Every structure is written in C-alpha cells, then in structure tokens.
Amino acid sequence: MLCLLRKFLMTMTIVLLLSACSLEEIEAWLFIEETPSAPIVEGEAIVSFLDVGQGDSTLIQSEKTTILVDTGRHDSDVLFHQLDHLGIEKIDLLILTHPHADHIGNADQVIYQFSPDEVWIDGNEAATRTFERLLDALIETETLVVEPRAGEVYEQGDFLIEILHPDELTGHLNNDSISTRITYGDVTFLLTGDAEQRSEERMLESGLNLKADIYKVGHHGSSTSNSRRFVEAVSPEVAIYSAEANNSYGHPHWEVVDLFEDLGIDLYGTAEHGTITIYTDGETFELYYE
Ligand SMILES: [Zn+2]
C-alpha cells in the first residue's frame, strides 16, 4: 500500500509539473516514471518475505545493502519476476540456509545475474543437480564463499547479523540450517531456515540472544520445528511462514498455528497473504501484504 501511495504521488508530481515544464524537462520526468523508483530511502529498511510457492526466499534491503536469504524452488523461476518487479539489480550478500532444492533452487542463476560479493553456505553438500549447478556458479564466478558459525557477528551495511546456528555440522541438512538474528536499529528479525527442534534446543542452550520482533517461522511452519520453548524465547510480535497454499506437506501444521494463537502472536503466511513486506525505520515497523 505504501508503494502504491508513492507511485501515486510520483504520478501526481509528474502531472503537476508537465504544464510548467519545457520539452527537455518533460522527457526527464517521463524517464523517471519509466524507471522503477528506488524503493528505499535513507533510514528505512524493507524486508520482503517473497511468495515463491513451497519454498523460501527473503529479501532484506536498506539504502546501503541488499541481502537475499534463499532463492526459492528448483522448479520455479517466480523469484526472478519478483526481484525484477522490485527493481533489484544487485545483491550484495546471498545467504543459503541449507542445500535443499526449495531453498537453493535458483541460486546459480541468482549468482550469475546479481553478482553477490559474498555467498554464505553451511558447508553441507547435496547429491542433486541443483547443488552441482550452485557449485559450478560459485567456481565460475570466483565468488567469495563464507561458512558462518554460531557466535559470529557480521556487519552488512546497516544490518547486524548474529549467527545463531550451526556451531558445527551434523550432516542433517535441515538441522544444519544457517540461523540468523538480523537487526536494523532496534528492530530484529530471526530466520532459522528449516532447522528443526533439535537445533532449536541447541540455540536455546547456547545462551545467544534469540529475542526478535519478527520471526520467520521455522521449516515452512512444520511441527518438527517451532517448539513452544523456542518460540517463547524468540517472543516475537509477528510470525511469518513461507509455504504454498494447499501444499502436500500440510504446512503450516495446525499445532504451530495453534501455538501462535495460544501465545497471542500474529501469524502471516505467503500461502494466505502472498508476499509479505515489513517496512521499518529502525524503531517501529509496519507490515503489508498483497
Ligand atoms: Zn524448506
């Protein structure tokens, strides 16, 4: 809605200016209208939980940096339509939580097209063509690859990224998901990929701060993740899951939906709400959906 308002204001500005402008100036304004307006202003961050069907992809933007966490499914290129629609030309940091095909689905093409400066992977391998294509893209482009570990803290533009998990690899692809607590000003997001309850326990035991305002619901809303103790430790205002409507896994599981309801936490999901966007000035945040 905010975007629409901005577009409307831009159009109104163009209309108002047309009458007073020379031809040269008119062309300049028309050019602005045709170019997607930069969505980010200084002092604002936008986090978009992209609707990529039964997969994951979260876009995190400020004026200084663009981060993409996961790249949607291997059998869908809807991610590129979304990134194109949002006017994304460059991704600075690509985080791949774990090598399942609903998370690294388009990673190779994202690397070729958006030239991330760094790609984070957990270090596990998958015996799939999708994973092979990712490795080929990383080698071919000579992109810097980082394997972050629990306890590390990174600064990326205006964002502080605390690594919550894994501390070491177990070889279990879901459970080794890179889990992050991402802070912009005073507003905090928590993303755990498909980490399951065993990993949530490990994060609880680690003593790391898990509190967040916005919680990306673990593992598409599966009851194998999102234990009560973990969600209580995160204690979010808003929880957002990514899943396709009527998916065969039954995500989000009713136990998880019930848990959030019981804890009084607002639950949103791409299956119901499409792409969900959080706008924040670092103090408060607003949520919009399609
Ligand atoms: Zn998944």
Keywords summarizing the entry:
single chain, 290 residues, alpha/beta, Metallo-beta-lactamase, Chain A, eight-stranded mixed β-sheet, seven-stranded mixed β-sheet, 15 strands, disordered N terminus, binds zinc ion, Metallo-beta-lactamase domain-containing protein, Metallo-B-lactamas, RibonucZ/Hydroxyglut_hydro, ComA-like_MBL
Explain how this protein is built.
Helix content is 31%, strand content 23%. The N and C termini lie close together (8 Å). The chain has an 8-stranded mixed sheet with strand order 6-5-4-3-2-1-14-15, with no helix packed on it. A 7-stranded mixed sheet has the order 7-8-9-10-11-12-13. The chain folds into 2 domains: 1-37; 40-289, 4-Layer Sandwich (Metallo-beta-lactamase, Chain A), CATH 3.60.15. The chain is an alpha/beta fold and 290 residues long. Helix 1 (2-18) runs antiparallel to helix 2 and helix 4 runs parallel beside helix 5. The structure holds zinc ion (ZN).
* CATH homologous superfamily label of the largest domain: Ribonuclease Z/Hydroxyacylglutathione hydrolase-like
CATH architecture of the largest domain: 4-Layer Sandwich
Strand content: 15-25%
Number of helices: 9
> Would you tell me the overall average pLDDT?
89
Shape: globular
Strand adjacency order, main sheet? 6-5-4-3-2-1-14-15
Major β-sheet, in short? 8 strands, mixed
Low-confidence stretches: 1-37
Estimated helix fraction: 25-40%
Total number of distinct structural domains: 2
Instruction: Tell how many strands the DSSP assignment holds.
Output: 15
- Quote the distance from N terminus to C terminus: 8 Å
| Rg estimate, integer Å | 20 Å
Bound ligand species: zinc ion
CATH domain class name of the largest domain:
Alpha Beta
Named CATH topology of the largest domain: Metallo-beta-lactamase, Chain A
Structural class: alpha/beta
Report the order of strands and helices: HHEEEHEHEHEEEEEHEHEHEHEE
